[in-house]
């Protein structure tokens, strides 16, 4: 297969007609090649062909092929432009600037004019921030400025830096513009945060929330009787988040459910106390330290703008409006900032007051933790109210179902009792009222068999008539002293087609 590559051995050098994309691999150094290794035996040239090389050039060309109608001169100019070497800034910085310029789509001199005019309508905040971010340091801008006579030889990114680099105090100017375009947004972020914390502190001192805490303290001291926590004067408010951990004996509810039920049923004036505390949820997202840090940062920024404005009293360029625009901004922004600082002072006093009010040590935990604990309690309360309502609704449904079942059972028992309310004629004791009961059974038709229920009315009337006749005969005989003739045989004949109740009635009246 051939000997190991020696000093005079080298791989073929190719010269493609079109520049192709590069493969970023790490070369194996010839000194590492030994007999028997793959790379010593490798003979890739056996696959080489003109057709294959042309296909590679076509498929992986580093730029698209020249379009019809584009002259060779134009291609030459483009190629020349692309191969311009960077003179000062590094490749990464140049790439970032090129990406920004590609999105900007604006002539370099136009960008320079917008910066001088402090035109923040056309020069958007994101663009100002990007220029400031990718702008080379002052020493590199000075080096680029030395290529005044070789401007055309500079890469696009360096031409841009050369153009805007002619503006005096460029970095400070851009920084002040960046502060100006972001100031209103930052004020609008900080202001509502201060307001939320201030309102939340006031809500924590509300009458109804205090009454709820009193109710919790009462229940807690009662439940803690005989323990080390009995007779407590108060409790840390983070305990409110633990009310859901204490369950009832039957495990059907928690202490949170119990307290919610008490407030709904026994103390309705407290039932919607949570409606008084709508700022707590917003306040817990605010960090007092971050608010202070942001305000301090704004104060430093406005101070820097005020000092920079003094450096631009006499602009050399008639288009330079920095002093005119930024001096007005410096005054107005300082007024807004002073108002914000006053609101911050009120907020801080409220925080100290509420911490003292509830014996909270702000050194151990920031105020936002107190807001978080209270907010969790409020959410648990709302959930408990909903769950209590569902539980009561389910219990009411079960109660109504049980009552309905009891009524059905009572009706069945009464019905069965009417059917079996017949008296044994052989039973000893007073039989008074038996005939009345039987007469009622006959009147309703319940004394007759189901299969004969349709004709029960007629038979009932017949039996009643027979019974009245027999009763009349008995009374006549009783007054005359005559003995009643034996009617056993006739009774037996009549009873053969009668129901049990009819037979009993005839037997009693015989």
Reconstruct the topology from this structure.
Elements: H1 38-41, H2 50-59, H3 72-82, H4 91-104, H5 108-117, H6 125-134, H7 138-145, H8 156-164, H9 170-204, H10 207-223, H11 255-265, H12 280-283, H13 288-309, H14 322-357, H15 367-419, H16 434-444, H17 456-480, H18 488-495, H19 500-509
Helix pairs in contact: 4-6, 5-8, 6-9, 9-13, 9-14, 11-15, 13-14, 16-17, 16-19, 17-19
Distinct helical segment count = 19
**Amino- and carboxy-terminal Cα gap:** 139 Å
Which blocks of ≥5 consecutive residues have pLDDT under 50? 67-72, 74-81, 449-454, 486-496
Specify the structural class.
Answer: mainly alpha
H/E element order: HHHHHHHHHHHHHHHHHHH
Strand content: under 5%
Average the pLDDT over all residues and give the rounded result: 80
> How many strands appear in the DSSP assignment?
0
Which value, in Å, is the CA radius of gyration?
A: 52 Å
What portion of residues is helical?
A: 55-70%
Q: Which outline best applies?
A: elongated
Sheet of most strands:
none
Keywords:
single chain; 0% strand
How would you characterize this protein structure?
The protein is built from 19 helices and no strands. It has helices at residues 38-41, 50-59, 72-82, 91-104, 108-117, 125-134, 138-145, 156-164, 170-204, 207-223, 255-265, 280-283, 288-309, 322-357, 367-419, 434-444, 456-480, 488-495, 500-509. It starts with 37 loop residues before the first helix and ends with a helix. The model is unreliable at 67-72, 74-81, 449-454 and 486-496 (pLDDT under 50).
């Amino acid at each position: 297969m051939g000997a190991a590559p020696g000093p005079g051995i080298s791989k073929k050098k190719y010269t493609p007609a079109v520049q192709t994309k590069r493969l970023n691999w790490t070369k194996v150094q010839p000194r590492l090649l030994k007999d028997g290794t793959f790379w010593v035996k490798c003979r890739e040239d056996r696959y080489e062909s003109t057709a294959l090389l042309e296909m590679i050039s076509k498929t992986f060309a580093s730029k698209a092929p020249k379009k019809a109608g584009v002259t060779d001169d134009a291609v030459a100019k483009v190629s020349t432009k692309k191969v311009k070497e960077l003179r000062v800034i590094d490749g990464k910085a140049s790439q970032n600037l090129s990406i920004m310029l590609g999105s900007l789509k604006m002539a370099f001199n136009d960008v320079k004019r917008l910066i001088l005019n402090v035109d923040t309508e056309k020069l958007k905040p994101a663009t100002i921030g990007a220029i400031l971010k990718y702008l080379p340091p002052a020493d590199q801008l000075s080096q680029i400025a030395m290529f005044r006579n070789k401007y055309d030889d500079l890469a696009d990114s360096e031409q841009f830096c050369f153009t805007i680099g002619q503006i005096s105090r460029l970095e400070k100017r851009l920084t002040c513009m960046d502060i100006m375009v972001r100031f209103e947004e930052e004020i609008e972020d900080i202001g509502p945060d201060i307001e939320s914390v201030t309102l939340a502190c006031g809500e924590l001192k509300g009458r109804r929330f205090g009454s709820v805490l009193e109710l919790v303290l009462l229940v807690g001291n009662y439940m803690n009787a005989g323990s080390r926590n009995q007779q407590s004067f108060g409790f840390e408010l983070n305990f409110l988040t633990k009310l859901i951990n204490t369950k009832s004996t039957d495990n059907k509810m928690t202490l949170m459910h119990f307290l919610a039920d008490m407030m709904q049923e026994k103390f309705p004036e407290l039932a919607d106390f949570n409606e008084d505390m709508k700022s707590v949820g917003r306040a817990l997202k605010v960090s007092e330290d971050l608010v202070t840090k942001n305000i301090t940062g704004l104060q430093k920024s406005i101070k820097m703008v005020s000092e920079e404005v003094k450096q631009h009293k006499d602009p050399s360029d008639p288009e330079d409006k920095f002093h005119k625009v930024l001096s007005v901004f410096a005054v107005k922004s300082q007024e807004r900032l002073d108002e914000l600082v006053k609101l911050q002072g009120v907020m801080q006093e409220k925080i100290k007051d509420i911490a003292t009010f509830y014996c909270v040590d702000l050194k151990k935990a920031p105020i936002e933790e107190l807001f978080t604990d209270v907010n969790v309690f409020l959410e648990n309360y709302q959930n408990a109210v909903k769950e209590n309502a569902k539980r009561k609704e389910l219990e009411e449904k079960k109660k109504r179902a049980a009552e309905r079942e009891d009524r059905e059972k009572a009706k069945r028992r009464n019905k069965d009792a009417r059917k079996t309310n017949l008296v044994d004629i052989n039973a000893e004791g007073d039989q008074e009222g038996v005939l009345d009961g039987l007469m009622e059974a006959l009147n309703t038709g319940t004394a007759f068999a189901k299969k004969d229920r349709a004709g029960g009315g007629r038979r009932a009337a017949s039996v009643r008539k027979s019974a009245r006749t027999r009763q009349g005969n008995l009374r006549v005989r009783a007054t005359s002293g005559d003995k009643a003739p034996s009617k056993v045989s006739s009774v037996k004949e009549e009873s053969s087609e009668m129901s049990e109740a009819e037979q009993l009635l005839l037997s009693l009246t015989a």
